[in-house]
Amino acid sequence: MGNFILSGAAVRKAGNNVDVAQPAAFWIESISGAEATLMAISRSTYGSFDIANAQDNILADTAARMVAMDAWNSKPTGSDATTSRIEFEDRINVLRDGVLRGISLIKDQKVVTLIGGN
Q1: Most exposed among 4, 22, 54, 114, judged by the fewest C-beta atoms under 10 Å?
Q2: Residue 116 has what pLDDT?
């Protein structure tokens, strides 16, 4: 199983005001879930994953966006409780669109081969 991202990548994708004061267990669970989902979609474990390789950034970007969505869903009002529902929904929609784009690319078996899959 490859390690695609760290919590910092998800925080950067989530943007300003996301609640980053989550316990370590939240980040571990969310990251593991995102990585497992992407491996199931592509039918690969990405044992040779190299986060420094630009071609592998599709996985890292998609996983980071998935974790960023979890972070926003855990506290929709943001770290200071001032995020409006409209702003929250906009952030989730932008992240979701990126996740769907990434999943579409990952499902394409030519891309899976390109990024080191089976």
Answers
A1: 54
A2: 56
For every residue of 72-102, DSSP letters joined together read: HHH-TTTTTT---HHHHHHHHHHHHHHHHHH
Q: Which residue has the tokens 């899976």?
A: 112
57: helix, coil or strand? helix
CA distance 21 to 11: 11
How confident is residue 53, by pLDDT bands cut at 50, 70 and 90? low
Contact 58, 108 (CB under 8 A): no
Q: Are 20 and 11 in contact (CB under 8 A)?
A: yes
What letter does residue 18 receive in the DSSP assignment? -
In this structure, the chain runs to a length of 118
Q: Which residue has the tokens 């996985």?
A: 59
Q: What are the pLDDT digits (tens) for 79-99?
A: 888 889 999 999 999 999 999
CA gap 28, 87 in Å, rounded: 26
User: What pLDDT, on the 0 to 100 scale, is given for residue 110?
Assistant: 64
Cα torsion at 91, 93, 88, 51 (round to 10°)?
-40
Q: What is the pTM of this model?
A: 0.81
